[in-house]
């Protein structure tokens, strides 16, 4: 009897454990595997041929894998409706230097069951989920077939560092398409996961956006970081979301909406965010006005973001502003402002950690300037491809196991 009773108790405990394990494993959630910051396309960044009545195939490289996905499209900065007559997603055969796709993977996207949708001004729409297997760092092609679409004031990401392809008419034939290194309307790809997959989202300017990296190679510092995370112990399910905008400022001016106005959308509007990296400021500090006073104002914005992130259970890491001596941004006052901001980032107990890009990229003989080995076009501001590699490899991966 005692033996039978023990067996019954053991079986009950096994079922309890298995039931709890099953509940944990069955808890599904969405995580963004790719996303981009958006703005109004400047005139010189408008599509080279109209989108209205035509088709565009846009290539992106995701981070974490998944078998079930959905796509976000945005008309947030538009003033007129955008009509999508049809849309597909497929595995791309390159990281951007061709329009070719794996035709067997081409999958129709729908929106509340409809193949078409009209995206109103200021609106973000999410496709219905589809089953489509993606590996880590998968090249994906999102094809949109437009009806009505304005010729300007288009929601876009100008600095895609990846070619998109515009073809005439509602077509799947892109053999005679026009290439352009910009993204339009596409906003994010999300995957459904059952594990503890999570995302790090990086608020940045042109350095994070990828200036100095190689078009269609996907070698921004954030790409390097993503590949390291995927190969790392305990970080293989961490996605990297690049929210860099070229010319962006935190406080005022610059290109695109300022960081202090866009952060609620670009940081907290992403699915599955567990970590935030704040890596802005150089365009503020290098502009007109007292850089020391600007540094203090930037710190106040950062404090606000940190407080909001912590209330959501999100960790925040500070990225130090890299040296820019030799660039027109440089002056004694601007350098004083950079050092003031960086000192706060390195010493405050409000942040959960530091990514010290400034130290990693500085010339050992003159820490006020960038190591010449990393210079892009000798502008003393942006890193070249080797600099992006160095930045991505310098990040401590243990930050993303906490």
List the topology elements:
Layout: H1 2-26, E1 29-35, E2 39-40, E3 55-61, E4 66-74, E5 82-91, E6 107-108, E7 117-119, E8 124-126, E9 130-134, E10 139-146, E11 155-157, E12 164-167, E13 178-180, E14 183-184, E15 186-193, E16 198-204, H2 206-209, H3 221-231, E17 238-244, H4 259-266, E18 273-279, H5 282-285, H6 291-311, E19 315-319, H7 332-347, E20 353-355, H8 357-361, E21 362-363, E22 366-370, H9 385-394
Parallel strand pairs: 16-17, 16-18, 18-19, 19-20
Antiparallel strand pairs: 1-15, 2-11, 3-10, 3-12, 4-8, 4-9, 4-15, 5-6, 5-7, 5-10, 11-14, 12-13, 21-22
Helix pairs in contact: 3-9, 6-7
Give me a quick take on this structure.
With 402 residues, this protein is an alpha+beta fold.
Q: Keyphrases for this structure?
A:
single chain; 402 residues; alpha+beta; seven-stranded antiparallel beta sheet; five-stranded antiparallel beta sheet; 26% helix; globular; disordered N terminus
Structure description:
- The protein is an alpha+beta fold and 402 residues long.
- It has 9 helices and 22 strands.
- The strands form 5 sheets. Strands 3, 5, 6, 7, 10, 12 and 13 form a 7-stranded antiparallel β-sheet that branches.
- The chain is globular, with a radius of gyration of 23 Å.
- The N and C termini lie far apart (48 Å).
């Amino acid at each position: 009897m005692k033996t039978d009773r023990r067996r019954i108790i053991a079986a009950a405990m096994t079922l309890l454990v298995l039931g709890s394990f099953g509940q944990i494993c069955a808890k599904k959630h969405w995580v963004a595997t790719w996303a981009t910051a958006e703005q109004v396309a400047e005139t010189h960044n408008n599509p080279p041929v109209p989108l209205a009545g035509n088709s565009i195939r846009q290539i992106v490289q995701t981070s974490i894998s998944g078998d079930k996905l959905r796509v976000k499209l945005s008309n947030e900065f538009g003033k007129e409706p955008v009509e999508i007559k049809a849309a597909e997603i497929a595995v791309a055969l390159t990281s951007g230097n061709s329009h070719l796709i794996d035709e067997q993977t081409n999958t129709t996207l729908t929106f509340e069951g409809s193949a078409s949708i009209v995206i109103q001004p200021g609106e973000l729409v999410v496709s219905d989920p589809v089953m489509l297997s993606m590996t880590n760092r998968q090249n994906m092609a999102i094809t949109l077939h437009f009806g009505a679409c304005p010729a300007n004031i288009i929601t876009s990401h100008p600095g895609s560092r990846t070619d998109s392809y515009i073809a005439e008419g509602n077509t799947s034939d892109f053999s005679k398409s026009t290439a352009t290194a910009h993204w339009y309307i596409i906003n994010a790809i999300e995957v459904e996961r059952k594990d503890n997959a999570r995302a790090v989202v990086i608020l940045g300017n042109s350095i994070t956006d990828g200036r100095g990296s190689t078009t269609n190679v996907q070698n921004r510092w954030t790409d390097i970081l993503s590949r390291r995370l995927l190969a790392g112990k305990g970080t293989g399910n961490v996605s990297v979301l690049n929210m860099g905008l070229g010319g962006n400022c935190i406080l005022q001016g610059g290109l695109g909406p300022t960081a202090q106005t866009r952060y609620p959308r670009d940081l907290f509007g992403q699915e599955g965010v567990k970590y935030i990296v704040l890596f802005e400021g150089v365009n503020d500090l290098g502009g007109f006005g007292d850089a020391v006073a600007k540094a203090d104002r930037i710190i106040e914005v950062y404090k606000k973001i940190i407080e909001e992130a912590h209330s959501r259970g999100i960790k925040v890491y500070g990225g130090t502003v890299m040296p820019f001596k030799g660039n027109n941004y440089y002056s004694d006052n601007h350098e004083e402002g950079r050092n003031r901001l960086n000192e706060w980032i390195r010493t405050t107990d409000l942040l959960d950690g530091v990514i010290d890009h400034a130290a990693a990229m500085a010339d050992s003989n003159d820490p006020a300037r960038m190591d010449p080995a990393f210079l892009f076009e000798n502008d003393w501001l942006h890193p070249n491809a080797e600099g992006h590699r160095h930045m991505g490899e310098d990040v401590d991966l243990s930050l993303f196991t906490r």
